[in-house]
């Protein structure tokens, strides 16, 4: 009886620890390091360089398309390229136990989303106190990311005191200021400094959004590189798809980095963030090639590790993509106000759909 149990256990371990599919072709695998490095750099640095230097500045409509196309890519990445693989990994039959009894990929993504929201609530309180301290204003002022009721409703006393003409002149903007992400790229003379009318809270909110997005994307890029380096027959198709995958994902990240009005003290931060994304996948590919004979992507440890980190990344990108990139831009941004605001918002929406659709299509192969 005991011997039978041992045999079953060993069989289970074997089904959960297969060899990888590495089949040689070392030259083309090494080329992937440099080709994907180039595609990642193009996607990430092009918006950043264009927003800083006039000699490669893109027309405003190109920047507009890049911005919303990239947002769609980020959202689709969360659903198709992160949550689905995480579900496959943590739902693999060989894991058994609790993994067979509960959809852990979705649970971890959900917990990550709420943890991130809690973190932002705490960050909001910290920023509020920091600004109050710097300004010396005991009364403080409303943090616009979450919205203060005073921003949406007028006080009764104000309504009684103001005349009709004063109401027209003093009419308040009913939308939170933090949601008003900059919708024009910076001029060269403004490099490294916040715009004069940039509210500090909006600035800190932008920083938080960018760092969250960067964190989620980099997590994902590590395992993408490892998987490519030890893939087998599907290597060529995966290689081609990942070139575009990294470029489009970098475009989404790079555009958001470029749209942030970095302070002078953080003038090197956007370049560091772009470099971190650019090098993550190529380094992961190189590491994968180094352990190509021992790394088993189907092993129990690898399945759990990949599944957990993909789930965490999915939760991060759900929050960043839907809240920061979609809701903020479309519902509360000042970009779509005015006479042609609705027409412009529809164009942005369909551009967003194209980005999401194309990235979702790439999920057929990677």
UniProtKB/TrEMBL annotation:
Signal peptide feature range: none
Main location per the UniProt record: membrane
Keyword Transmembrane among record annotations: yes
Organism: Hyphopichia burtonii NRRL Y-1933
Subcellular location: Membrane
Bilayer-crossing regions: 28-49, 61-82, 102-124, 207-230, 271-291, 303-325, 346-365
One Gene Ontology term, aspect cellular component: plasma membrane
Protein name as it appears in the record: Zinc/iron permease
Family note: Belongs to the ZIP transporter (TC 2.A.5) family.
GO MF terms held by the record: low-affinity zinc ion transmembrane transporter activity
InterPro entries per UniProt: ZIP (IPR003689), Zn/Fe_permease_fun/pln (IPR004698)
UniProt KW keywords: Ion transport, Membrane, Transmembrane, Transmembrane helix, Transport
Source domain of life: Eukaryota
